[in-house]
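Morning F.,

Quick status update on the modeling queue. The single chain you submitted on Monday has been processed. Sequence for confirmation:
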Amino acid sequence: MPEFDFLRSLVIIYGLSAIVVFTLGKIRVPSLIGFLIAGVLLGPYGFELISDVHLVEIFAEIGIVLLLFTIGMEFSLKKIMSLRKTIFAGGFLQILITSLIVFFITVNSGYDTNSSIVIGGLVALSSTAIVLKLLFDRAEIDTLYGKSSLGILIFQDLSVVFFLLLLPMLNAHEGGILNVLKILAESFLFITVVIVSARLLVPKLLHQIVRSRIRELFVISIIFICLGTAYLTYALGFSLALGAFIAGLVVSESEYSFQAISDIIPFKDSFNGLFFISVGMLMDVNFFLSNAGYIMLIVLTVITVKIVSTTLAVLLTGSHLRIALHSALVLAQVGEFAFILAVSALKLDLISDTVYQYFLSSTIITMLLTPLLFYISPPVSTWVTSRKILARFESIKAVEQKRGFSERKSDHVIIVGFGLNGKNLALVLKELEVTYMVLEMNSQTIEEARKQGEPIIYGDGTSREILLKMNIERARVIVICISDPSATRNIVLTARKMNPDIYIVVRTRFLSEVEDLIKTGADEVIPEEFETSIELFSRVLKFYNMPRSLIGQYADRFRNDHYQMFIRGETPKQLFQDTIALMPHIDYESYIVEKGSVSAGKTFRESSIHEKTGSFAVAVKRGNETIHGIRADFQLQENDIVFLIGNKQSLEEADKQFFKKRT
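Structure tokens below.
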């Protein structure tokens, strides 16, 4: 039946997409790329399984609206301010440099000025969806290159609004600069009126809706705000996407933004998939095959231009060359928002159908290459920065920042990375008067640490030259606590080669990295996720009144066996079960007899610990000797360690009455 053709189309789209995404997922290819490939297979230039492409385009428009709405909701003043330098300096420079390079290339290739401006803007954008997914999957969003990439992506997303306003201006055939200024003024006035009106109405509206406690009403209202604002902007002559972004910004300022995001994401993901599928459908496979050589040349040019421009942009914000190059390789593709702008430019006759097909084919190829660029970015960036001339340049910077520190330090600790872990370690070392030096690549962190008198310098720990300036050959310990897995492995390898006797301690995030780091040369590897696990099971076992010594044995075995004990399942389950069954209310604790406490110098009989608290003494440790079979006439001395058993209340009472210093 014709009226159900759309249902048949959706069944085919989602069915084939699920198969393609599942298959590519096995080789860790992002789902968005799977949607693009599914679209190519489904479309009129593939197997022609979908007859009504226009219907899919309508769904795709909804996907674009929801995508920009969620992007708007995910923006917050706090997030923008924390990355302000990267966003406003790095992001602006990246778009400016990329657009200018592409503009000159296209103008010299025979394109008119307006088309060249449009193409430059399209190429400047990278894929927020693909890059962020890969960063989160690899747990590298908090690395320096991850933060740089995120900051630039945020600015690119913000600039989409500017490009959406720019396109109609470029198409304005009459009025010249005055007409452009008029359109810009109208756009600014409209956006201001919409935001101010919505800021006054939306929070009150959402508050009343939430008070009704009807979940369905909240979801419907959020969708209404999104689609309603988008339609209003469209009716007034602006784009749907612009209205959706403004609606997202308005909702983001309310206290209900997190719930709104969680409710909208399932819709966004579904329709977003349709958007990428529709883009894939528009790709002419025959055109690609006929012009494959030229398209691959475009791909190579785009990737090269973006690597150069992004590297320069990140470098100019004060980042290290390795971080800049790493970020550039990750952001070398053209992004999904470029598709939105390209469709708009095509409708406004700013680019031709041929240019659009070249753009479409080359953009999809750059997206397909993104996982490969992610994979090669760590070794490539490390290799480039290890070249002698570049390493020497970084070494000179490190020496300049090292002035005032001792050049002949020895038996010191080198701390690589001055985040929370590095700061806490430095605090303890300072308290114990242990000499240490800190190596950091975040200029803001360095500036703040210097104000506090920390011996910190700028530099990349993967560089042999930098480690030499840190006197690694005479150092006793190096502690690596950064969030970059690739850099961590390189630092371990380099440090071990330069000082075979140095003790290397590494903090890593995941257990899967422990074995590799040990093989590379680390002496101790502390995975955060399993240290958290130790704390969790310690708390649980303590709740079940398990002795602290047994809990300590678990933790020690866990660590000493490099965290393999629980993976192999070698846990004494029966001991745990027997302990709970036999001693459901008995705990075990140890106390130090402090100077001036009630029990110091008295026997157990004189102290009456058992009579007054109900706890029993099972052993006393004095110096290196442990004394068992404690009798009532045993006299306690200062600094003795007393082991008691009893319930929690009795042990707490014993500690308060007998072992603490009297005030």
